Amino acid sequence: MPVAIRPAEPADFAAVATVIDAWWGRPVAAALPRLFLDHFHATSSIAEDHELAGFLVGFHSPGLDGVSYVHFAGVRPDQRRTGLARRLYGRFTDQAREAGSRELRAITGPSNTGSIRFHERLGFTSGGRSRTTTGPASR
Ligand SMILES: CC(C)(COP(=O)(O)OP(=O)(O)OC[C@H]1O[C@@H](n2cnc3c(N)ncnc32)[C@H](O)[C@@H]1OP(=O)(O)O)[C@@H](O)C(=O)NCCC(=O)NCCS
To answer: Is 82 in the pocket of ligand 1 (CB under 6 A)?
Structure first.
């Protein structure tokens, strides 16, 4: 079944919260409270086939001029390496450009090597002042 991507809605929080710890393989749900979907659903995306296949939660920073930020992006294990996260990031990047952003930032844990490799493939670099912020939070 093809995977379709649509804008997120606040009600998507329940489905995301249900799978997030299993998809990450460790407890990370506390870092994605409901407020993110309540306030940033319009700039977040949901991917679905017969169920939730992936998601991206991000926003265009109200405080940092020209910066858009991805807080969480995840893909269901059986859908990984199919280009789905690249599609989710592509959609967000297009929206960011339209919103006037010039820089994309994301956060991931220093031990999450798969995520770091993924972001590198997308052109991110690590470091506080570069395009990807690798933070101490384990996600
Ligand atoms: C990281 C994650 C989102 C990647 O999703 P994905 O849909 O498998 O990624 P894609 O298929 O779009 O891959 C895009 C590119 O990254 C590469 N890539 C993806 N995962 C990779 C990994 N673990 N190691 C090395 N490269 C990887 C792919 O090979 C691909 O490269 P290419 O297009 O140049 O050939 C997914 O593995 C995931 O959900 N992990 C658990 C949650 C997580 O850590 N999220 C990120 C932090 S918020």
So the answer is: yes
Indicate which atom in ligand 1 lies nearest the CA of residue 114: 23
Tell me the CATH architecture of domain 4-103: 3-Layer(aba) Sandwich (3.40)
DSSP 114-135: HHHHHHHHTT--BSTTSSBEE-
Asked if residue 26 has its Cβ within 6 Å of ligand 1, the reply is no
| Confidence at residue 69, expressed as pLDDT on a 0 to 100 scale | 97
Which ligand 1 atom lies nearest to the CA of residue 119?
16
Q: Specify the higher pLDDT residue, 131 or 69.
A: 69
Q: State mean pLDDT over 83-91.
A: 98
120 CA: nearest ligand 1 atom: 16
What's this model's pTM, rounded to 2 decimal places?
A: 0.93
Domain extents for the chain? 4-103
Band of the pLDDT at 103, cuts 50, 70, 90?
very high
Residues 67/23, Cβ–Cβ less than 8 Å: no
Gap between the Cα atoms of 80 and 77, Å rounded: 5
